[in-house]
Design a protein that fits this description.
The chain is α+β, with helices and mostly antiparallel strands and 135 residues long. 27% of the residues lie in helices and 29% in strands. The chain contains three helices and seven strands. It has helices at residues 16-28, 69-82, 125-134; strands spanning 3-11, 33-38, 42-44, 56-65, 98-104, 109-110, 115-116. Strands 1, 2, 3, 4 and 5 form a five-stranded antiparallel sheet that branches. A hairpin with a 4-residue loop joins strand 6 (109-110) and strand 7 (115-116). The longest helix is centred in the middle third of the chain and has 14 residues, at 69-82. The radius of gyration is 14 Å and the shape is globular. The two termini are 19 Å apart.
């Protein structure tokens, strides 16, 4: 029962630790979803995007969910908006919270809104290292 998924989480605006903690709490309260494991939090430099950004705090979550992939994505985007991320944010710009589906079970998903496995997992140490830590 349920699919094992891995989520990337990051923040570089406001109280970064609080943003991550609040997002984790909200994810754990999602219907039919439970956090199984959380990696350590790492501080990393921004990759690409707007120059002069503050460093990010990043982590990876292992969850079990009965939500379909697009339903999970919709819920994660709702949490991002609740924590102050505008719907039309600057690509690779600063953000209060960033939530990405890295893996959804063994599925390969390619839609206009969702690509899983996340296409840049292994190009980014701030995702690959915490992911390897909890796998």
């Amino acid at each position: 029962m349920g699919v094992i998924c891995y989520l990337g989480i990051g923040s570089n605006l406001g109280n970064r630790h609080k943003n991550i903690k609040t997002a984790v709490e909200k994810i754990n309260r999602l219907k039919e979803t439970k956090i199984i494991k959380i990696s350590g939090i790492r501080q990393t430099n921004p990759v690409g995007g707007v120059s002069g950004q503050r460093k990010f705090l990043n982590a990876v979550l292992k969850i079990k969910t009965n939500l379909a992939p697009l339903a999970l994505l919709k819920n994660l985007q709702k949490i991002e908006r609740q924590l102050g991320r505008p719907k039309n944010h600057i690509h690779l710009g600063p953000r209060t919270i960033d939530l990405d589906i890295l893996f959804y079970g063994n599925e390969v998903i390619k839609t206009a809104n969702l690509n899983v496995p996340h296409p840049r997992i292994f190009e980014r140490d701030f995702v690959a290292k915490p992911l390897l830590e909890i796998i």
